[in-house]
Amino acid sequence: MIKLDLQSKTPLYLQMEQQIIDLILMGVLKENEQLPSVRNLARDLGINPNTIQKAYQDMESRGIIYSVVGRGNFVASPSAAESLKRRESMAALEKLLQDARHAGFSAQELHQAVDAAFQPRKEDDLL
Amino acid sequence: MIKLDLQSKTPLYLQMEQQIIDLILMGVLKENEQLPSVRNLARDLGINPNTIQKAYQDMESRGIIYSVVGRGNFVASPSAAESLKRRESMAALEKLLQDARHAGFSAQELHQAVDAAFQPRKEDDLL
DNA sequence: TAACTGTTCTATTTCGCCTAGTACACCCTT
DNA sequence: AAGGGTGTACTAGGCGAAATAGAACAGTTA
Predict the structure, then answer these.
(1) Which of B99, B102, B109 is nearest to A26 (CA)?
(2) Is A14 within 8 Å of chain B by CB?
(3) Domain B12-78 class, CATH top level
(4) Within 13 A of B22's CA, how many CA atoms are on the CB side?
(5) Residue numbers in A near B99 (CB within 8 A)
(6) A97 and B117: CB-CB below 8 Å?
(7) pTM above the 0.85 mark?
(8) Could you read off the pLDDT of B40-95 as tens digits, one per residue?
(9) Under DSSP, is residue B94 helix (H, G, I), strand (E, B) or coil?
(10) Phi, psi (rounded to 5 degrees) for B34
(11) Closest CA to A75 of A88, A92, A56
(12) What residues have CB less than 8 Å from A32, skipping those under 6 apart?
C-alpha cells in the first residue's frame, strides 16, 4: 500500500505523507477510515515507529487526519486533503512562475508549458 | 553585494550561487570580470572560505564561472548563466505543472496562474 | 621575494533524519 | 479487573550533509 525509497533525499516521513494524501485523494482511503497503527505500519514497512508517528503528527497538524488516543488515527474529510494539496501546489507554482518570469520566459512560453503539461503522452497515468 | 540568510534551510553555498547568477543576469557582473577572492568574500560575509570555495567549484562545474589558479575566479559567458537558469527553471516548472495537474487543476486555472504571474503588482521589481 | 590567488586536506561542530528502547495513558474487549 | 491494542512522550545514539577551523601546497603577479 505504501512504498518507501530509502535512497531518496526526501525524508521517509514526508514520502509517507505524500502517498497517504494521494491514497485519500484517489478514494482508496475514505473519510473516518482507520489508518494502520503506528506499530503495525512500522513493522510492515521495516522502519521505526517513531518515523510513522512523526508523519501522523505532521498530517494531523495539517488537518489531513485526526487521532484519538487509545483508538487510532483516522482520515479527516477528503476535501481537507484536497484543498490542502491544491493550496500547496498553487503556492509552489506561483513562486516558480515568478522565477521563470525573472529567468526571462515570456507569458507565451509559459502558456505553452502549461499546454504541454496537459498534452497526453505515453507515460502518463502509468505511474 | 551578496546577502546570506543564516536561518534559511537552503545551504549558504547555494544561496551564494543563486545570487551571483542573478548578478550576472542583471549585468552587474560582466563577462571575464573577476569575482571576489575566496578569502576576501569569506571575510566580508563572515563565513568560512571553504564555503565560498564550494560555491565557486560548483559554479565552475556548471559553466557559470571559470577559475585560474593563482589568478582568481572569473565569470564565464553571461549567456551560459542565462541558458542554464532557463533550463533549470523550465525543468522545475514542468515537474510542478504535472503536480498541479494531478492535484486537480485545470489547464484554464493554470493559464490564469501564468497571467497572474505577469500581472504587475506593487512589490514587483523592488527586490 | 612578498603577497596575493586557487586548491586540497583533515578534524570538528552542528543539525535534521532516523533508529532503538522504554514508559505512560487511554480505549476496548473479554 | 485484566489484557492487548492504541497514541504519546522521552532519552539516547548513529548517520550524513553542511559548515567551520586550520594548515599546507601550488601558481601568479608586483
Answers:
(1) B102
(2) no
(3) mainly alpha
(4) 15
(5) 89, 92
(6) yes
(7) no
(8) 999 999 999 999 999 999 999 999 999 999 999 999 999 989 998 999 899 999 98
(9) helix
(10) -80, 135
(11) A56
(12) A74, A75
Q: What phi, psi does B93 have (nearest 5°)?
A: -65, -45
Where are the strands (E) in B1-127, listed by range?
Answer: 65-68, 72-75
**Closest-CA distance of chain A to residue B58, Å:** 19
Are residues B118 and A105, on separate chains, in Cβ contact within 8 Å? Answer: no
For residues A39 and A24, give the distance between their C-alpha atoms in angstroms, rounded to a whole number.
21
Per-residue pLDDT of chain A (127 residues), as tens digits, is 889 999 898 999 999 999 999 999 999 999 999 999 999 999 999 999 999 999 999 999 999 999 999 999 999 999 999 999 999 899 999 989 998 998 889 999 999 999 999 987 655 554 4
| Torsion angle (degrees, nearest 10) of CA A101, B10, B87, A104 | 20
Amino acid identity of B44?
A: D
Instruction: State how far the Cα of B121 lies from the Cα of A2, in Å rounded to an integer.
Output: 43
The CA-atom distances, in angstroms, between A10 and each of A4, A77, A116, B24 are 10, 26, 27, 31
Chain A residue with minimal CA distance to B106?
A118
A14's grid cell: 514526508
